[in-house]
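Quick start: what a row looks like.
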Amino acid sequence: MDGLIKLENLRTRFHTEDGVVNAVNGVSYEMAQGEVLGVVGESGCGKSVHALSIMRLIQIPPGEIYDGKIWFDGRDLLTLDEKEIRQVRGRDIAMVFQDPMSSLNPVYTVGFQIVEALTLHTDLNRKAAKEKAAELLSLVGIPEPKKRLDNYPHQFSGGMRQRAMIAMALSCEPKLLIADEPTTALDVTIQAQIVDLVIRLKEELGMAVMWITHDLGIVAEMAHKINVMYAGYIIERGSAQDIFKRTKHPYTMGLLGSLPKIDEAPGTKLFSIPGLPPDLVRLPKGCPFFARCAYRKEQCKTEMPPLEEAEHESHIVACWRWREIQAGEIQ
C-alpha cells in the first residue's frame, strides 16, 4: 500500500478565557491508500480536533494550528489558501460527523444537498448530478432513492440520515473518508449496519478510512492500524493485533480492561481507570498519564517519554516502563 497522508508534529490549540487549551500535541503518523485507521481514546483526548485540523475546519480564532505539516498528494494542506483547501474538502478528503441532524441543513432536501456537493466538485450538470445522487442513496441502502431525494432531513430516521451523510461524503469518490464517531447517536443494530456499510464501500471504492471512536469493539473489527490518543498525544500505535494482543501502554491496558468479556464469570466487576484526564490548559511536564498510572515512577513525572519501537517498527509506545511491565518485573 502506498502512502496517502502524512502528519508531522501536528499541534493545535485554542485560546480561551481560562488560558491556552493544548488540544493536539505533536501528532505524527502516516496512512496508506486503502488503509482503515482507528483513532481511539476518551472524550477530550484530541481525536476529533486532530481530524478537523486535517480538514482545516478549526475555527480561527479561538483555534489555531500552530505547528506541523499535513502532507497529502505531495502538498502540505496547511499551506493551501481557502480556495485550494475547499477543492480538497469533499473531493479528495470527506468527513462524516457524529450528529447527522446538525450536519444536514434542515431547510433543504437531502437530494438538493447531495446534488450541490456533486455540482461543486464535478463537471456534472444538475440533471446528471440528481441521477448520481439517487445512485448514491441506493448504494448506501436507502430504499426508493429517487423518491427520497425530495425528502427533508427530519423525514429520515437517525440511521437513514447518517447513511445520507455517508452518501454525500462519497459523492466525489474521495481518497480518504474521515468518520468522526458516526454511530454514537444510533442504536446497536443500526451501528452494526453503518459499520458493515462503510467496510463494504471501502472495499468497492478502494478509499482509505479514518474511524474515530471510543468504541474499541468497532476498531477491533475493521481497523488495520490503531492510534491510541491521550491528552492530545498518540501514546500507542500499532496493528489491531498489536493493540489488543500485545498491549504495551498502561492507559491502553486500562481501556481494554474496561471492556466486558463474554467468558467472564457472572458478577465480575469491570475495571475502571482511576482519576481524570489532565487539564489541557495546564499539561503536566512529564507523561500526561502520570497521575492515573499504577506503574508510575519519578522519571514519569518530570520527563515526557518519546514514542519508541516496541518489538517491531510498526508498533510504537510512549512509556518509560513498558519493558518492565511486559517482563512482569512490576505488578
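That is the whole record. The mean pLDDT is 87. The longest strand covers residues 3-16.
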